[in-house]
Amino acid sequence: MTDLTKLTISAALDGMAAGDFSARELTAAHITAMEAANVLNAFITKTPEIAVEAATASDSRRAKGETRKIDGIPLAIKDLFCTKDVLTTAASHILDGFVPKYESTVSSNLWASGAVMLGKTNLDEFAMGSSNETSYYGEVINPWRREGSDSPLVPGGSSGGSASAVASFSAMAAIGTDTGGSIRQPASFTGIVGMKPTYGRCSRWGVVAFASSLDQAGPMTRTVRDAAIMLEAMAGFDPKDSTSVDMPVPDFEAALSGDIRGLKVGIPAEYRLDGMSPEVQALWDQGIDWMKAAGAEIIDISLPHTKYALPAYYIIAPAEASSNLARYDGVRFGLRVEGDDLDDMYARTRAEGFGAEVQRRLLIGTYALSAGYYDAYYLKAQKVRSRIADDFKQAYQKVDVILTPTAPSPAFGFGEKGDDPLAMYLNDVFTGPASLAGLPGISVPAGLSSDGLPLGLQLLGKPFDEETVFRAAGVLENAAAFTATPNDWWRG
Amino acid sequence: MGMIVQGATGDWEVVIGLEIHAQVTSKAKLFSGASAEFGAVPNSQVSFVDAAMPGMLPVINEMAVEQAVRTGLGLNAQINKFSVFDRKNYFYADLPQGYQISQFLQPIVGEGKITIDLKGGESCEIGITRLHLEQDAGKSQHDQHPSKTFVDLNRSGVALMEIVSEPDMRSPEEAAAYVKKIRSIVRYLGTCDGNMEEGSMRADVNVSVRKPGDELGTRCEMKNINSLRFIQQAIIYEANRQVDIIEAGGTVAQETRLYDPVKGETRSMRSKEEAHDYRYFPDPDLLPLQFDDEFIENIRATLPELPDDKKARFVNELGLSDYDAGVLVTEREVADYFEAVATGRDAKLAANWVIGELFGNLNRTGKNLADSPVSANALGELIDLITDGTISNRIAKEVFEEMFDSGGAAADIVEEKGLKQVSDTGAIEAAIDAVIAANPDKVEEYRGGKDKLFGFFMGQVMKATQGKANPGVVTEILKPKLDV
Q1: Within 13 Å of residue B209, how many CA atoms lie on the same side as its CB?
Q2: Among A214, A210, A162, which residue's Cα sits nearest to residue A189?
Q3: Judgement on whether residues B293 and B314 belong to the same structural domain of the protein
Q4: Do B269 and B362 fall into the same domain?
Q5: Which residues of chain A make contact with B98, given a CB cutoff of 8 A?
Q6: Contact A110, A73 (CB under 8 A)
């Protein structure tokens, strides 16, 4: 029998439909893989019992001919999504023991489509980070290692646990959230596909908030087709989220025509950074050639305000976070450290409950919103944000999609950037601008670095035009023919 | 009409502005579906949103938006078709989100004005700066346990309208009249029940003093006062305190103060330096609030007649005095009651009965109009008996007392007690003849020119008929008999 964990979602659905194996068998194989990959620390909470129960229910639906869209597909859920009666931590000490009495809309949608939950994946604390080094529950390890090296590498972040789970074949797919690159960058670091849809496409209800105007859920999969299948199951208007958009969800899988003849692909001059890794540059050039060869028209474009995107992002996101995280005060749930009075209790609880990176961002955000600084920081950053959105709007007059690298480098080692937050923040340089503009973007594994690490290319699209993004990504995926997988050293 | 504080250095003028927090009449809270009803068991009306559980998001309650627009129209104010919800950030145990969703730079209602009624029939205009929607916080209870504070989140998220006035008031009486007028308007509109005791209406009072004609002085804000009496007491205390400080060579510090009704004084809560930096910014969980003219016009079309218009109509069309009309329109229920009594009857007579006898008896017994034993219909029937001559005005008062005590109908009481007015000329003439016969001296004096004695004869006749004789008929017969 084939290793069921190596299947794509579409192949697994076909296999179950053909009666080759059951949802229970598929789930059991993944539970085994998940347990075998403990060393990666991809999961904060594993839920094998829930998974088996859901898989059994899936099999009986299938037997009755009531099969749903992704019936029986075992998934990993980033531990930022609230899951009813299952511990939800945001990888933070401050949410100790928090078990929600409600289920996030996105995960509800997945269960309604028949999916099976394997567990809750690790992440940077409150999704603040690009390396998964800030989790209270410990670092997540990338299944990939440099050729000939045993040193562990980061999986990227903040959806590092989800990326690691998918890349290690512990889950068929995972869901993540992307605020400035938190789906796309770890996808690039682990050789998988990561899709951030347009802001408003997926409901934020029940997702622990980091930066409300930027947070967006999306799928992490091993193929573009799987990402299309997943997004269709996740997305949709939700009256409980005022920022979700009331638009029909297209059949994303049907968009994968494989034909991009005449498609206009923009190449932004400003994304050619000084000192960018030559490998990344070379891969990008290779991507351009692939698109051209497939019949696309390559057009040079300018996104002139790109260099202001990161500074603006690192004002806006912390500012919103400083307010969003005020509810973690020790009063109603999670950690409480007693103090002499109310203020002292707040101070002790938050000092102990939040890690260093979260505290850093809360301080930055609080400062940026303070009286006398608001205009200079927050308001200015919002103005930059509109300019960046305008840049894209202009560009999309001329092109249909934009092709860029996903991240400036392949996965790096632990502690390599730990002392320098600015170096860490640079990871978002290619993903942040589209987040600020609310645009859809996907990272597709496109090649390996000289030391054998995966590198992704990013395609950005027009608002709510995920279909074109998927179509272009499908062609890129075919051309790149990325089949490398990490050797499974973690199985010991 | 302004209040003057007579200081050692001369007269000081008092300048007052108010921020009224009015709870929106709505079944649900501003951003959640939980019930907004008063008085429920603590923490029984709290949704996941109100408790600020992780991942919860606010969704605007359209009813609350309609109520804010309705109130804005009632305040003759500009309605802003585009407004923005902001977060006002501060930490407190009864503020679960760590911020209050409010409106800061772009409120739903802009400038307006209302007319307030003062003693002696005077009135003046008070400017409205703005009205905005915001969430209420929960309630901290410090008296339930020796060392712990309990938090009740039932109020958390309840919709409030904050109505901000211009600093247009110059005396405690004007401030009270302003609050009364706002309460009257919101109650007419059905947008707030105006109940100050239950806290559904409360005021922050800003007070400063200056020499007449000078620039505005430094103000102090007294938070959360929930009675008209306390508002006035706080203003008087605060104005005198500020004058004393300035005249002693000091300066008034801008600060938030607390009015203590037990001690009758204000004291400092926090200084300007200690003031929170609320770090307002637009709430990214909510889209700007936008609606069109049609939305506004649909609401305008359902506005009731408001107190000022009603008063003008009572004066111009029903011939009431300014004072009577003013008294009758303050509460919509009273105005409705009066109109029910007055319809098809003499409006002035109806007004006299409502303001005189009805209010008198309600006050005496401590009852509200809603609990009045005498319905508008019943009072109308009583007035009909006066108008058609069945009973005299004096007897009617007696009948009314009986109606008020027993709840009986006027006609039944008149019948039962034999109070019907006698208009039978034969019976009256007999009584007159008897009175004339019994008082030959007085008749002589009257005929000798002592006209004033006519009243004596009237009184004797009424006494002889136990007050039931129709006074008109008595006069008609008595006069020619005496004047012979």
Answers
A1: 26
A2: A162
A3: no
A4: no
A5: 323, 325-327, 329
A6: no
Q: A with B: how many residue pairs have Cβ under 8 Å apart?
A: 99
Q: Are residues B319 and B334 in the same domain?
A: yes
- Given an 8 Å threshold on Cβ–Cβ distance, is B59 in contact with A322? no
The CATH number assigned to the domain with range A4-262+483-491 reads: 3.90.1300.10
Q: What is the pLDDT of residue B1?
A: 60
**A319 has a chain B CB within 8 A of its CB:** yes
Shortest Cα–Cα distance, B96 to chain A (Å): 6
On whether both B171 and B272 belong to a single domain, the answer is: yes
pLDDT recorded at residue A250: 97
Q: If pLDDT is split at 50, 70 and 90, which confidence band does B22 have? A: very high
Q: What is the mean pLDDT of residues B239-254?
A: 95
Which of the pair, A390 or B462, is modelled with greater confidence? A390
What string of DSSP letters covers A188-241? HHHT-EEEE--TTSS--TTBPPS-TTT-EEEEEESSHHHHHHHHHHH----TT-
Please check the confidence at residue B49 and state whether its pLDDT lies above 80.
yes
Query: Which residue of A79, A86, A244, A324 to mutate against B (max B Cβ within 10 Å)?
Result: A324
CA–CA gap between residue B136 and residue B153 (Å, rounded): 10
Chain A residues whose beta carbon lies within 8 Å of the beta carbon of residue B88: none
Tell which of B32, B43, B53 to mutate to test the A interface (max A CBs under 10 Å): B53
| A411–chain B nearest CA distance, Å | 30
Put simply, whether A82 touches B (Cβ < 8 Å) is yes
Distance of CA B219 to the CA centre of its chain: 27
Residue A402's nearest CA partner among A308, A306, A482 is: A306
Q: For B419, list phi and psi in degrees, rounded to 5.
A: -95, 5
User: Looking at B364, B384, B417, which one is the last position of a domain?
Assistant: B417
What is the arithmetic mean of pLDDT over B217-222? 95
Q: Tell me how close the Cα of B91 comes to any Cα of chain A, in angstroms.
A: 7
* Residue, of A214 and B477, whose pLDDT is higher: A214
Q: Where is average pLDDT lowest: A50-59, B161-170, B310-319, B475-484?
A: B475-484
Q: How far apart are CA A455 and CA A475, in angstroms?
A: 17
Per-residue pLDDT, B118: 87
Looking at beta carbons, which residues of chain B come within 8 Å of A333? Answer: 53
Q: Which of A323, A346, A366 sits opposite B87 (nearest CB)?
A: A323
B413 and B429 in a single domain? The answer is no
B97 touches A: beta carbon within 8 Å: yes
Average pLDDT over residues B200-223: 95
Q: Is B430 on the interface with A (CB under 8 A)?
A: no
Query: How many CA atoms does the CB half-sphere of A85 hold within 13 Å?
Result: 3
Give CA–CA dist A261/A266, Å, rounded: 14
The whole-angstrom separation of Cα B101 and Cα B90 is: 11
Helix (H, G, I), strand (E, B) or coil at B86: strand
Check if the beta carbon of residue A28 is closer than 8 Å to that of residue A52.
yes
Task: Tell me the pLDDT tens digit for each residue of B151-199.
Answer: 999 999 999 999 999 999 999 999 999 999 999 999 999 999 999 988 8
B389 shares its domain with B435: no
Do B17 and B146 belong to one domain? yes
Catalytic residues of A: 78, 158, 182
pLDDT number for residue A44: 98
Can you give the residue range of the structural domain that contains B408?
305-417
For testing contact with chain B, the best of A331, A340, A341, A436 (most B CBs within 10 A): A331
Q: What is the pLDDT of residue A3?
A: 93
List chain A residues with CB under 8 Å of B138. none
Reported ipTM: 0.96
The SS3 call for residue B13 is strand
Below-50 pLDDT ranges, chain A: none
Same domain, B43 and B115: yes
| pLDDT on residue A370 | 95
Residue A277 has a pLDDT of 86
